[in-house]
Amino acid sequence: xxxxxxxxxxxxxxxxxxxxxxQEPNDIVVKITSSGICGSDLHLYEVLGPFMTEGDxxxxxxxxxxxxxxxEISHLEPGDRVVIPFNISCGYCAMxxxxxxxxxxxxxxxxxxxxxxxxxxxxxxxxxxxxxxEYLRVPQAQFGPIVVPxxxxxxxxxxxxxxxxxxxxxxxYAAIPDGGSVAVLGLGPIGDMCTRxxxxxxxxxxxxxxxxxxRLARAQANGITTVDLGGVDDVADALRDLTGGRGxxxxxxxxxxxxHGAGGQRMARKAxxxxxxxxxxxxxxxxxxxxxAALRTAIDAVRRGGTVSLxxxxxxxxxxxxxxxxxxxxxxxxxxxxxxxxxxxxxLPLLTDGDPLGVDTFATHRVPLAEAPQAYRDFQDKNNxxxxxxxxx
Length: 393
Ligand SMILES: NC(=O)c1ccc[n+]([C@@H]2O[C@H](COP(=O)([O-])OP(=O)(O)OC[C@H]3O[C@@H](n4cnc5c(N)ncnc54)[C@H](O)[C@@H]3O)[C@@H](O)[C@H]2O)c1
Ligand SMILES: [Zn+2]
Ligand SMILES: [Zn+2]
What we know:
Shape: globular
Bound molecules: nicotinamide-adenine-dinucleotide, zinc ion
Distance between the termini: 10 Å
Number of strands: 15
Structural class: alpha/beta
Oligomer: single chain
Radius of gyration: 20 Å
């Protein structure tokens, strides 16, 4: 089959690789019809390179048609239309039972001291072949796959794999009071969806922050107030100005470790990317390599006693944090990968009863698998109005 394969920093290619097959009795194989490219894939494209191995198949936002089922799978059959959550979880362990599927004790990657295995996401998360491919082997299929109805185009359901539950969890963790205010840092797919969900769930003031004109315009077209990072001296001041001087009740960081902004960390990060794998890994563990501009803005801007919710991914293990401010302002901080299946019951009605979140028109580009290398470049460089790409094998 054809698949999107990581070859090195900023080098992904579409290669011919062996077809996946059932390996365990609780596996299924899915023929992929749509597969998103995520901001998380961009981390692999550059800064998380030291944790990748040439030949890794990328992708963790797939949906498609069940092709084959293992002998223990009785609730699915070939022909079913399914969306595959990006985290691989069992559904029955102590973590899964309390809704922490990202910490699944059956799939935890213990030799790396990490949580649940993820599709297409480095050796830290199990090095499981990903879903930007014609076919995908899905482990733990007794629990993961979400069956969706025939009818609407893939666009309606594909974001159940990641974007929707990630944004839902970010808003849930933000604990915005009824009618309260939230600022969303970053208007990529995740931040954009956070603004839509926050408003849908009753936030009074929703402000989006970014620096890419098309992304700001996209949010404005949805009625979101925006702040242009490049157009203000200090984002936190601008957010206070928009919220009666006090700061938003909650701030969501949908940027993560590659934030634009001032800071000496850029040099350290560049160094990590250039080092040979082992040395790069070591430096990430011993030095702070995240660019924490967005996180710092969140901590500065949020009102006293407010909540900072991180959905942006951070990867350095020794980043300095403004502990005095966090403590003095009595800030609550919540974060993590999305526990996808936990939120599906809340989200599905918003997909089957009309389209209040605008998922049908959310993708900016739908391209064949063969065009993945160009799509990665455009998404990384924010060229060509690229916000969300769906690969259609
Ligand atoms: N928690 C999860 O489960 C989960 C799931 C999916 C994605 N993510 C993470 O969420 C983040 C966003 O993903 P995405 O797909 O929207 O990616 P993206 O890269 O398209 O979006 C990031 C946006 O942040 C903007 N930005 C950069 N620096 C900024 C700053 N200082 N202030 C405000 N905006 C700034 C960029 O211009 C860009 O539009 C990534 O870190 C990704 O890894 C997390
Ligand atoms: Zn993703
Ligand atoms: Zn589990």
